[in-house]
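lol ok so funny story. i was supposed to be doing the assay writeup but got distracted and ended up predicting the structure for this chain instead. priorities right. anyway since i did it might as well share w the group, maybe its usefull for someone
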Amino acid sequence: MRVWEHGGMTRPRISARISAISESATLAVDAKAKAMKASGRPVIGFGAGEPDFPTPDYIVEAAVEAARNPRFHKYTPAGGLPELKEAIVAKTLRDSGYRIDASQVLVTNGGKQAVYEAFATILDPGDEVIVVAPYWTTYPEAIKLAGGVQVDVVTDETTGYLASLEQLEAARTERTKALLFVSPSNPTGAVHSRAEVEAIGRWAAEHGLWVVTDEIYEHLVYGDTEFTSIATAVPELGDRVIVLNGVAKTYAMTGWRVGWLIGAKDVVKAATNLQSHATSNVANVSQAAALAALTGDLSAVAAMRVAFDRRRQTIVRMLNEIPGVICPEPHGAFYVYPSVKGVIGKELRGRRPQTSSELAELILEEAEVAVVPGEAFGTPGYFRLSYALGDDDLAEGVSRIAKLLAEAR
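and the output, tada:
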């Protein structure tokens, strides 16, 4: 760490709090893949978690109109446009049966800001948060910045990456304040059944825990799988549940940066105060686009879901045909999370990778395919691959991995 000296004292240039933050591994992999592609290498990237579809035209048109409206050239309320907050109220009732009012909604700069503000609002230093691993890379950093202590419950492919009630109870201590509940899951695509959601929610309510639930993938479930909101399924959680969501995945709007936080009025008021000093209002043009998305129908996500389902089945089949790779079938989101433990340690192109991170680096260099190693998600020995990319690229990318790993000895 670089230091500066003044008056005989030596101090770090960067605060310990910020120095402890790791770069987003998924964005780093995506950036490296794009840089290699820009240099002329035919890299196929499975790293970024974003739909490969454009934002629907009617949403874009609403944004264009908003850009011409002088009202949106000025500051608007820090907590969100009133009409967008009302649309979130209506959408939440429509999609999950959860009844709220506009005073319980905070519009945020994407889902990541909602995650950060939720933990910043409810955690004091030393408060513990139970987090199921594998977990999305942003959760640990948001908890850490809030002074919280992450307590991992590790799952694996033998259970489809689902945590049991017994595991959760074993992780609970007198310092436990919250459970982070994510279903469908990034990075695994795991989805809890209604019975499991109800059991976990009742356990949290019984012990007076907060539940922070990320529902960003609510519309991306496949086959007979159904999404269940813990807020609706377990009303006895009362005002100790915080729902995180956004338009990014459902409407292919990752770059528009509109998310939201739903919670008790005092939580939302406190988080809004924080946002008023951090960023003020979300960009008005993006809010207008989100309003058009939420007041429209769900035909766009229905079409994407058909394509994702087809790709899901293809990638699971192809990965499971590779010796040493085990890929459970995900039931939600647009990721697979195969175990590559059967390949690690074997000789490959004159090297013997000892970790999934080293194996991912070798695959990028030798096969020109970018994947995110499990180290980024708290469980070494795995890869996360997004299947939100074109069918041809998906098949070609997995074929390259298979061809390379076939050389492992």
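The chain has a mean pLDDT of 95. The chain is about 40% helix and 15% strand.
back to the writeup now i swear
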